[in-house]
Amino acid sequence: MMFRRVAFIGIGLIGSSLARVIRRDGLAGHIAVAARSPDTLAAATRLDLADSVTTDPAEAVAGADLVMICTPLSAYPAIARAMAPGLAPDVIVSDVGSVKSCVFKDLGPHLPPGAHLVPGHPIAGTEHSGPEAGFAELFQNRWTILTPAEDADPAAVDKVAGLWKAAGSLIQMMDAAHHDQVLAITSHLPHLIAYTIVDTATDLATDLQQEVIKFSASGFRDFTRIAASDPVMWRDVFLQNREAVLEVLGRFTEDLTAMRRAIRRGEGDELFDVFTRTRAIRRGVIEMGQDDVPEKPEGEV
Ligand code: NAP
User: Which terminal residue of the chain, N or C, has fewer Cβ atoms less than 10 Å from its own Cβ?
Assistant: First the structure.
């Protein structure tokens, strides 16, 4: 057993997947879950992911040696204030949020002096939400990035890393600001492009829209999967990682303009060169085993 009591604040896709791992491997003596809605708490109980449930974060974290925050980023300040009175003096507080610099600002001031903040981000997910959508294999062979401060307690960092290793994750330590820059290009910009392309299609005349859907296998389909991701989560990502996203969006816009010019001028060589370079990146993704889309195994609850 790694932890006496783990408190999950939020138990959607990511929280419930990690709770399934903790249950499967018996890593905690007690799993306490806090969420907002009675339906979510009932689902956590029905799925056997919680030994106790509550809508009060302070009640969930009382006596916990690990608190794992698995809510949208915009909820962090209110959660931090609400759970503060219940936190044990030497608690480890971690999270799974998709942007990391903001975690120190939103959680840090509310933690007791001896608490250990070890922010994390599993680079794994699907377009589905809620406790029913989770599965224990979600993190298998996927990276989890941990972004503790330089002076963080190594024992606390090791414990959080150990939990993600038990989930099958590969661990990467990173500075929070660097994480946000890397994710702006690998995750946030692609989501923005997918949302925009799919939204462009929704503006088309009805008959053309039908054809976009009918012939979606020609490329559009893959964007629709990404653009079906949770709107609250992604709104928060763009609000919290504004600077890094704007920086990479500027570069992307320049590259897009260059492509537009090459097409307009009929510069086939230029297009061919870009499309050849990009194939090499795809080969790298495949070689690192990061190319498949994770899906919940059939029959798993
Ligand atoms: P999700 O399935 O929508 O679940 C969110 C959970 O947070 C629910 O249990 C919800 O409870 C709770 N919650 C929402 N607002 C709250 C609030 N104001 N106060 C307390 N609880 C609240 O979300 P998710 O996909 O697991 O994402 C959770 C976090 O993981 C996000 O920060 C996201 O950036 C990060 N992440 C997501 C992915 C992904 O692909 N989905 C991947 C990596 C990291 P109720 O149902 O009761 O509202």
Answer: N
